[in-house]
Amino acid sequence: MATKFAKRKPADPPAPSAVSGLVPITQDAPRRRRRPVVVGAGLALAAVGALVAAWQVDEAGDRVAVVALAHDVQAGQVVKKSDLVVAQVAPDPALAPVPVSRSGDIVGKTAASDLPKGTLITDASVREGSPIVQGRDTVGILAKPGQLPAQRLRAGDEVALVHTPEDDADAARSSMQKTPDSITAIVSGISSADANGAVVIDVAVAGTDSSSLATWAARGAVTIVLKADS
Hints:
The chain has 230 residues and is of the alpha+beta class. The protein is built from 3 helices and 9 strands; from the N terminus they run αββββββαββαβ. The strands form 3 sheets. It has a 5-stranded antiparallel sheet with strand order 5-8-7-6-9. A two-stranded antiparallel sheet has the order 1-2. It has a two-stranded antiparallel sheet with strand order 3-4.
């Protein structure tokens, strides 16, 4: 007699044990609440920045048109209309530039000192006429390199104009003298140098010397000596 064995049903797998205390993973991070004080401070700073920017824009637009120099003008030179240019500047109580509406008051006057390009013109920058030439004659001398000092002359410098003849007759006459003829003068103006380095020097001399000096200058027989300060 055959023995029958009953089939045993496999046991169910054990249920996983529950893990306590785990937080499910999500894509959203927890958000922090912003404190009212921090939010208020940020808004205040933004408002201040906006006010500063608005003030700077307003200041940039609050400018006035004044007179400045288009290029260098040396002391003693007459200021021409072409020497002037319009500049836009912010009002400043420490400055007193001449407004464009008064530019006509500047043209025709002489520079009181060397005025570099870009200088804002004030009433003190120029003067009526030049006291250097009052009561004196003005003679222009075309001076080439070697006929004047390397040191740049300025209006108001006292100079000695030494006669340096080139023709034989004048040279022989000068050699018989113990000292060469010379005339004391005051520099009243200086032109810009040309391509060869020559400049025109305006000098103020006594009326009794102007004719002789003009003759020397026409012959190119003048050497300019800068007098030492006394």
